[in-house]
Amino acid sequence: MKILHISALPVWPLEGKGGMPSLRETLCGHVRGGHDVLLVLPQYNIIGDHANPVNVREDEGYNVILMPCRWAPALAMVRRFARRLGGGKELPYLLRWLLNLTLCLLLTLSLILSALRLRFVQKRHFDLVYAHNQYASLAGWMLGKLFSAPNVTRLYGTFLADLIKKPLVWLRYPVAAAGYLIPHSLLICANDGTRGDEVAKKLNIDMSKFRFWQNGVDLPSHPPNTTRTDIVNCFGALGLREECQWILSCSRLSYWKRIDRMLHALKYVCEKGCDCQLLVAGDGPERDRLTKLSTELGVAENVIWLGAVQHDQIWELMNVADVFMITNDVTNRCNPLYEAMSAGLPVVSVSDPSTVDLLKHGDNALLADKQDINSLAENLYLLCQDTSLASHLRSAQHSYSESFWSWTQRMETEVMELERLVMNS
Description:
The chain is an alpha/beta fold. The protein has 15 helices and 15 strands.
C-alpha cells in the first residue's frame, strides 16, 4: 500500500523545539506495517510567529517532500504585527480568525499542487491519503477525490470541547471544526483528555468512521541503566546537584502548561528546608518569563532548565528522578505522563477530569485543585519528605501502566484499519 501523508506540522524539532513525536510514530508504524510512505509538509514551521526552517531526517524509512511555501515568512510577519496590536500576548479575535483561515487555504493550495506534481509529473500512485491535523484535512479530502483513494484525517486533540455547546462554533472556529466536518473515510482522534469524542458526537460525525485512540508509549527496548552520576556528568554544567531530590517536568514551555505552578510549589518546599531541584525538560515561548519568575521567587538555583531533551534521555531522567510533576491547564493526559507512570515515578499533579482513570489521590499520585497552589506545594513537600509514601505511589504505578499501549501495538491496530479501508474502497 502506498500512503501519501500530508501535514502542516513538523515531525522533527525546529531549532531544538516543536516537532510532533506522535506524527513520527505514525509514519514509522506505517513503515513497520510494510507500506510505502511519502510525507509532504511545508519547508517552514507555519503555525507559529516565526517561519523557522524544518529539519529533515532521511533515516526513518520514509521519504519526505518539502514544499517551498514562499508565503510562510510573509504570513508569519503579519502574525507578529497582529500580536503587537493585541498588546504582545493574544491576537485580536477577528485577526486570529482571518489569519487561521488564510493559513488553512494557502496550505491547502500548496499541498494540492505538490501532490498533483507527484502524481502527474513524477507518475506516483497512492492508495490512501492521510492528512495530519485540521489544517491539512481539506487538502486530504480533495486529493482523495482526485486520486480516487480513501482519505484519513488524524487529529491531535482539540480545544472545542468546552465551546461546542455555544452557537455557531463551526463558524467562529472554522479551521478547528474543519478537522471534524470535512468528509473523510476515517477520522482518528487522540484520546488525550481534550474530549474529542464529545466534539465528534456534537457535530454529528458518523461514529462508525470515528476512532478515539489513546497514544502509545514509546518504551525503551530495555530499562535504562543510567545513574545519577551519569546525568550530572551530562547536565552538571547547568548546576545539577546529585545529592538532592529531583522533581522532573517534561513539556513544551507554553503558558497553558503552567510551569509557574511548579515554581511556586518549589519555593514553598525550599523554604521548608527540603533540598530539591526542579528539572525542566523542554523549551518554548515561556522560557524567558519563567526564568525571570524563578529569580523573583528566589528559586533560580533550584531550577535546572534542560532545554529540549532527546527521548532516550527523558527515559534516563525518569529512571533516576524522585518525582514527576505535571500541572497543565487544559489536559494532563499526555505521553510524558504515560511514560512517567510506566517508569514508576510518583506523580504530583492537579485534579483534572482527563486523568480521573489514571491518577488516584493517595494511591499513585497526590492531587490538588488547579487554583490551590498551597495544596499543590504541600503535596510536593509531603512526597519529598515521606519516603514510605513515595514508595507506595511508585509501587501502585505499575498496575495502572500495564494497560497502556506501546506505540507498536497502537500502530498495528491502525495499520489493520487502513488496510481494511483500502481493500473495501
